[in-house]
Amino acid sequence: MIDQKDTCETRIRFKFYKKDEFKYLSHLDIIRIIVRALSRAELEIKYSRGYNPKPKINFSPPTPLGIVSLAEYADVLLDGGIEENEFKKKVNLKLKPQMQITEAKKIMIKTDSLMNDIAISLYGFKLCTPSSGKNLLEEFYADIEGDLRAKSDFSRSIFDLKIISDKENSDIILLKLSGYAKIFKEENNEFFKFNNFYSFFGDWLKKYRINIESVEKEELFVVRENALKTPMEVI
Amino acid sequence: MNKIKKLDFDLLEKLLKDIEKPGRYINNEVGARSKSPEPASDFYNLISMALVFPDIYEVGMSNLGLQILYDIVNKHRDFTVERVFSPWIDFEEKLREQNVKIFSLENRIFLDCFDLIGFTVQHELLYTNILNILDLGGININSRHRRDKFPLVCAGGPAIVNPQPLSRFMDFFVVGDGEEVIISILERVKIYKCSSKDKEWFLKEISRLDGIYIPGFYKFHYFLDGSIESIKPGRKVRKAIVEDLNKFEIVQNPIIPNIKPVHDRFAVEIMRGCGRGCRFCQAGIIYRPVRKREVESLIRQSAAGIKNTGYDEISFLSLSSSDYSEIEHLLDKITSSLKSKRLSISLPSMRLDSFNLNLAELIQSGRKTGLTFAPEAGSQRMRDIINKNIKENEIIDCIKVAFSRGWEKIKLYFMIGLPFENDEDISQIVELIEKVIMTAEDGLSRKKLPRLKINISINAFCPKPFTPFQWVAQDNTASLDSKFNYILKNVPKRYINISWTDSRKSIIECALSRGNELVGEVIEGAWKSGARFDNWTDFFKFHVWEKEFRKAGLDISFFTTRGFADDEILPWDVIDIGVSKKFLLREYDRSKRYLRDQDKI
């Protein structure tokens, strides 16, 4: 028989979040939960051929245990045709509210795996300052650029830092950190060790009597022609 | 009445900082059902039960019994059940340090706020975990110090068929099948809760039910040598039995753990009880009579379960799954109805003599999992003694089938320290393993042979209550160790991976399973000296147990390496397990004469 190219398969990229209790689940747990939800939604994932067939689904780089993420991505190859919205609706019905798909889009072009393609991650920190700390805050503004970006071990991985005051609550500052999702090395690239950064940053903040109230992975980016794009924008 | 107190999420978050696998302590898995306690007043109309599995989440969530009871109780309008597991060492430390009581997963209700706390006990070496959980719940471990109406504390499961070692800690025990009796108990808890009746009244009330043993109602008298002179009253507690398994559908919407459990698959019980009559096997006696599920509804319900859960593996459980008369039909229907699903099938307990080509083909349609067989002994003489009705050529034929169908990973179980064992029996274990390797070398292609893996698991025999060997003296550690070392030294190294349980662990397991009520003091002492997770080799501390036996004035060997007299009153004689002592004794006699029973009993 001539090996016919399957006429009906759908490649979909979807974005989902993990929050509340589910932030305590590991990357591997999340993969298992998603794959099973697809199966319950009666969507059939295509498998690779060979001795040990593997489902054709791949995920964006892991988010550390205990961190809320609004930007988890996955690419899946499904048997059969399905519309994006129906896909999202069907799968969300099989997932708990703590983990839901926010966006789904068919992939129409050839893409690299998410793991390789994702270059930059954006984390948002909510920082709590003591109410008497107006002066402290200014000092902090000045130091953070120099200390953290230039001098720390993380200088190479931090890409951009933005500090914004919360409009509603003057004691809270929002800090946006964009960093390389990977640390590029001669031989093996390795993931940016967020947990190391987190504890380093937490300790550093104590100097200013500032506490980390919460942290979220907000978005992931790929680089196209020297510009940052979200994974959804490039398919 | 106790106020329902809950742990709030913010505090849980603080506790979970730096904790290994925090996913163990959160809830909200698919299939987890909790009756919402909002508004809290609603909860007072419900009878609340904590179902406690005294091991970690990943182990407990692999237990089918837990899923069955969870399903049955939560389906009932008036009752709610929530899960509690043993916290891992790091989380226990955190709870104690922060002075926070242990709580259920679903609504994070503190353990002492439940009406009924039920432990499901799978293994004797988890006894200390039970005390630890009670203590972490702020509950006095000794039942006689628990004067309040609630919580009531009980235990069930295979490791309490001899309830005596735990008797001082429990208000009552549930012996036998739990499905029906759990509802009868909860109905009486409801009456008790809504009345001014006292605990004594409640215990009397439930003592009328099958399967309920109330330690407070029995008195033991001892001879000077420590054996039992009499038990008063003489009335035995008859095990609870579900006559027809089909009355309860299989659990089709089980809780699907968020973190990876030990057994990550859809589990279905196809049969309860086993008619084989292996003389060492406790499960073979205590789960009698043999009851099977009707095959057509089993097929229907299994298919529904796979669809509901999204699992890619289904496991058909029983004590001897290949003995299920319609096993081929079952497997055939399941694989064909779920063809597109890439389902793999596992039959965890296959008899070597009933495994055949058809079965091999049906199982291998999905992903290939390893095959496990239990020859138990190396020599025919020994297999006759233990009544493992299987001949060597059957073993080899069956393994031949497995290799010819492409399996390259098999696991074999053996026991050492069996009654009447001699050196020849041990060396024949090595010979059998050699023959298996030769069979593999013949049967596997040159390409596959390097991937061959034979896992050998050697366990020390531990005489258990309600078996024909319940009277047998356990082998001592020196002898067990030397037998194991002989096997280790003489077994071929290639392809073989050999594992062995610490013989000292088997000694304590035996002492706890054949112990009397005085052993309770030892368990309490060991727990106070830090013993927990004794089934985990890393945590098992033999010297602690040794010391505590001594402190209690008890001799470990009295319960282990001593042969019990035929006419001795045994601590578990208060329970009528459904098989008479006369039958067990006859079987024991036959084993002495190397007689096996040809037919299934």
Characterise the protein shown here.
Helices cover 25% and strands 35% of the residues of chain A. Chain A has 235 residues and is of the alpha+beta class. Chain A folds into 2 domains: 9-115, Alpha-Beta Plaits; 120-229, Alpha-Beta Plaits. In chain A, strands 1, 2, 3, 4, 5, 6, 7, 8, 11 and 12 form a 10-stranded mixed sheet that branches. Chain A is elongated and about 65 Å long. Among the domains of chain B are: 9-238, Rossmann fold, CATH 3.40.50; 265-368, Transcription Regulator spoIIAA (2-Layer Sandwich). Chain B is 35% helix and 14% strand. Chain B has a 6-stranded mixed sheet with strand order 2-1-3-4-5-6. Chain B has a 4-stranded parallel sheet with strand order 15-16-17-18. In chain B, strand 7 and strand 8 (228-232) form a beta hairpin.
Question: TL;DR?
Answer:
By secondary structure, chain A is of the alpha+beta class.
Strand content of chain B: 5-15%
Query: Count of DSSP E strands of chain A?
Result: 12
What does the overall shape of chain A look like? elongated
Order of helices and strands of chain A: EHEEEHEHEHEEEEHEE
Overall number of strands of chain B: 19
Q: Radius of gyration of chain A, rounded?
A: 20 Å
CATH topology of the largest domain in chain A: Alpha-Beta Plaits
Rounded mean pLDDT of chain A is 85
Number of domains of chain A: 2
Q: Termini distance of chain B? A: 51 Å
CA distance, first residue to last residue of chain A: 34 Å
CATH architecture of the largest domain in chain A: 2-Layer Sandwich
SS field, number of helical segments of chain B: 21
- Strand line-up of the largest beta sheet of chain B: 2-1-3-4-5-6
The class by helix and strand makeup of chain B works out as alpha/beta
Under the CATH scheme, which class of the domain at 9-238 in chain B?
Answer: Alpha Beta
